[in-house]
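Lecture notes, unit on protein representations.

Consider one protein chain, 167 amino acids long.
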Amino acid sequence: MAAALVSAVSREAREGLVWRRGAAALVDYLVICVIFSVVVGLVIGMRPLSGMGYGFLKRVEARPTDLVVPVSLFLYFWLQHALWGRTLGKRLLGIRVVAPRAGAGRMALRSVAFPLLALVPGVGLWCLLVDGLWMLFDREGRVLHDRLLGFAVTRDRPTSDVAPVPV
């Protein structure tokens, strides 16, 4: 584990992708918590994450409100990645998701791949942990679902062909 950390730090120190990805995920998590706490709570009177605990897949009864959280999460990530290649967290931290031929359909697959790992019965949280920590072992600093789907996260640098806006 120590060797992986040293490798990750030396490999990504120039770009800062490892810490930026973690910080961007934290920002997105906070945005999502605020959205669910305020909007979902006020609009439909539901506790924000009811039913999303350990036994989510074991529930027998299915209510339409149980789909609000997963569908909202999917839309939050998919729409932003499909339109701009980044979420609010990635935008704040200057990183972007890139892939050859990355259309809305491929972005939808990417947006659903990570959350589906949490639903693997019995080992969902371990799958999420392995997926997130994969960047420490990957020579390009990619998480596992990005590696498998052909995506990468890079620094979002302004292009040189765009003139700065005068103040």
